[in-house]
Amino acid sequence: MTEDGAGARLGVKALASVFLALTLALSIFRFLDADEMEHVHSTWHVLNGAVPYVDFFQHHHPLLWYVLAPALAVAGESAATIVLFRFVFFVLTLAIAWATYRFARECQASREAAWLSVCLLLSMTTFVYVAIEIRPDVPQALFGVLSALYFTRMLRSERPRDAVLSGVFAAVAFLFQQKAVLLIALYPAPFVVFALRRRLPWRLGLYLAGAFAAVGAPYAAYLAVTGSVDEYVAANWLLNANLGAGRARVSFLSSVVLRDTGRNAVFWGLTLAMAAAAFRRRLDCRYGLPAWFGLGIVALVVALNRVVDRYLAAAVPFLAVAVGLWLAGEIERRRLRGPRLAAALLVVCLVPGVAMARSVFRSNRGQLARIQFVLDRSAPDDRMYDESRDFNLFRPDMHYFWFMTRPGVRLYNRFSGGRYAGYDVCRLLADVRPRFASDRAGHLAACGLADQYRQTPFDWLMERVPE
After folding, report:
1. Domain extents for the chain?
2. b/e map 321-333, b = 16+ CB within 10 Å
3. Given CB 3.0 to 4.6 Å as the disulfide criterion, which of 363, 389, 394, 426 pairs with 447?
4. Running DSSP on this structure, what letter comes out for residue 401?
5. Cα-based angle 265, 270, 272 (whole degrees, multiple of 5)
6. How many helices (H) and strands (E) does the chain have?
7. Are 371 and 393 in contact (CB under 8 A)?
8. Under a CB-based contact definition with an 8 Å cutoff, are residues 387 and 403 in contact?
9. How far apart are CA 158 and CA 162, in angstroms?
10. Cβ(290)–Cβ(321) below 8 Å
11. Rounded alpha-carbon distances, angstroms, from residue 444 to 175, 457, 460
12. Strand partners for 56
């Protein structure tokens, strides 16, 4: 993509802009995932002084909730707040696209190839459907790309500053989400290769590790001061290690994963072609390092049997850069120009683009109405039973375990010595008498409490009958 570069760049920018518009529409209108409700509710908890792991159950790192808490204090407790947060995550998606462009340029990509990488990123539903959602995976991906950018620059510049920045951004990614360890685990191999070839001082590894430790130290102190070390280990590591990533025994055979793979089949096909070319060259090419990071994360996700979009999303920026650089070379080698180039890009982007356009109409309007209905008909101190994470954003819960009760309670008790061995949903429903209850699992009838609740205009949402 060297000849007619300006025209090619303009065409790719235009295509990227289309996908950016689709991403914005998805941010505003697409249905809400239960994980988003979970993280907004956890933000409300910390805003009201609750300590994660001690006062309420969670199995994620807490940085996102503390970052969003001031915004929640300003925005207020309404269903519209979750739309506002969605827009914040659209801005984060823009930031990831920018970081992907900068990372591609750091890998010596031309401007055209860097823009092609951004276009590939934004056309990948595996990434976009996760990036628009209110979840820690998004800032984790952003800071992961920034860390990799400075890691790559360090290999070239040999500057301590780049090593420190790589370590700082890696630590921030980890503080947002523990999945960042998948990227961090891939750093030693290229570092050792460069150091053994005397192309890099060993001391830079100490700078990187020291910066990571320095940024992470306050979080370790926070856990110690709040007395939540044991709960943190049990919930964030032991419990998560024993939870599957989905309902399928083999995660990549899940129907959801297979559908997503089908939507992005061309991207994954190009990834395989790029991988074959990279390994033929023993990764000694401009796209060797992004290929190592992207393919490495995917390999670890497969090995851990956690092939779902929220795990794969962190790999997509790196794969987009690697595929973008490789594909730009192939386009130049085959001299694709004008209509032929447009046709090639259309083949890559058509199916995911149609899928995104259709997904815009899978509206969140009913979910927002449900959330506001509960807020309008409840008092600030009314307790809720919402283990399905359907409606409760800004009200207290029935119990410490407010979601993931199956198999979360059983696993947590195994690792904590039976701290909540007395959890009994029927007893809690009878004693606490929550104002609203999600009855997807049919607990009200099973516990003999169905006559105390009435159906609301929303499926599975039950309201307690006034005395």
Report:
1. 5-359, 381-464
2. bbbbbbbbbbbbe
3. 426
4. -
5. 95
6. 23, 4
7. yes
8. yes
9. 8
10. yes
11. 39, 17, 11
12. 52
Distance CA 45, CA 397 (A): 10
In Å, what is the CA distance from 142 to each residue of 4, 133, 325, 416, 456?
Answer: 32, 14, 20, 33, 41
Decide if 216 contacts 171 (C-beta within 8 A): yes
Q: What is the DSSP string of 435-464?
A: SEEE-TT-HHHHTT-GGGEEE-SSTTEEEE
Judged by DSSP in three states, 375 sits in helix
Residues forming beta bridges with residue 30, ordered by sequence position: 363
Token digits of residue 401: 């375990």
Distance from C-alpha of 182 to C-alpha of 178, rounded to nearest angstrom:
9
Nearest to 29 by CA among 363, 368, 359: 363
Residue 349 in tokens: 């982007």
Among 135, 127, 64, residue whose Cα is nearest residue 99: 127
Sequence-distant (6+) residues with CB within 8 A of 403 are: 38, 57, 386, 387, 388, 389
Nearest Cα neighbor of 191 from 169, 167, 168, 174 is: 167
Q: Which helix (H) or strand (E) holds 315?
A: none
Is the pTM above the cut of 0.85? yes
Tell me the C-alpha distance between 278 and 292, whole Å: 9
Q: Which residues pair with 436 in a beta bridge?
A: 384, 463
Report d(CA 168, CA 341) in Å as an integer: 40
CB atoms within 10 A of CB 391: 25
Residue 464: strand pairing partners:
453
